[in-house]
Write a structure and sequence with these properties.
27% strand; three-stranded antiparallel sheet; alpha+beta; 7 helices; Nucleoside Triphosphate Pyrophosphohydrolase; eight-stranded mixed sheet; disordered C terminus; 26% helix; 278 residues; globular
Length: 278
């Protein structure tokens, strides 16, 4: 598993494009795609730890996936038609529904639901979602409602480089329940899941023990600045949410991937070192 094994990595290093994002090591061969980005949502689940930095819920993408294979990412996925229908029915943002649903499906951890289901109920929800049962029907059957205010928008990543897949992804942050809730993955999109601090993941990548895509690395650097969930939420509230589309530029003969300087991210460029592929 990525949480245990190794790969070459380092600080603000050259990257390859995959799914419109950037790996710190070669990604699968890219195929040309349409210009239409796929709407998606990601949920950064955070739990405060006494005497330490907050832990984040992260998953390892399965090696066979077309997008971000083998990378450590936050739970999430595309916004599907059923999410939009449920959003219209409930008067909510479809991205909130997709982020909540995908987190349960990928990790068996529920955030943004009321009343809070226990671990056994959430495991049942996960199995039902993996079996393609309707999220809306499951909410009714379990007597649950979506608590949209529990999710705070954090960033929106919209790459414009052509690769296998390109996503328009809204990132949210949310606080985990105050219980020792361990994630569980079902084989498919994810190979593993764990609670880890932002600094720990960045250090693992630096020493070659993890793979990160460009938006995840930038997000971890931003999260690592804070010692509580409330600080992270305040950071989110202090910065506007607008599409972040990394671009390539050359400075004094060196090539970089860049993002805007005013959206809250402490690191806004990364060297390409001649290895750019788009």
């Amino acid at each position: 598993m990525i949480f245990e094994t190794s790969r070459v990595g380092g600080e603000s290093r050259p990257g390859f494009a995959s799914g419109g994002f950037f790996f710190a090591a070669p990604a699968p061969t890219c195929r040309r795609m349409s210009d239409e980005a796929i709407p998606a949502a990601t949920l950064i689940v955070i739990r405060d730890r006494a005497g330490g930095f907050p832990e984040l819920l992260m998953v390892e993408r399965a090696e066979g996936m077309a997008f971000a294979a083998g990378a450590l990412v936050f739970p999430g996925g595309r916004i599907d038609h059923a999410d939009r229908e449920l959003a219209q029915e409930l008067g909510l943002n479809a991205a909130v529904i997709a982020a909540t649903r995908e987190t349960i499906e990928e990790t068996a951890i529920a955030v943004g639901l009321t009343p809070v289901p226990d671990e056994a109920e959430t495991a049942e929800l996960q199995r039902a979602l993996v079996a393609d049962e309707s999220f809306g029907d499951l909410l009714k059957a379990f007597g649950l409602a979506i608590e949209a205010d529990a999710l705070t928008p954090f960033a929106r990543w919209v790459p414009k480089f052509h690769a296998v897949r390109r996503f328009d992804t809204l990132f949210y942050v949310a606080q985990a329940q105050e219980i020792d809730w361990q994630p569980h993955v079902i084989e498919g999109e994810c190979a593993d899941s764990a609670w880890v601090t932002a600094a720990d993941v960045l250090e693992r990548e630096r020493r070659g023990a993890a793979r990160l895509i460009f938006p995840t690395r930038r997000t971890l650097e931003r999260l690592a600045q804070h010692s509580t969930f409330e600080q992270i939420r305040a950071d989110a509230a202090a910065h506007r949410i607008e599409p972040i589309s990394p671009w390539a530029e050359e400075v004094n003969g060196e090539k970089f991937i860049r993002i805007p300087d005013d959206l809250g991210f402490p690191v806004t460029r990364e060297r390409l070192d001649g290895l750019w592929r788009g």
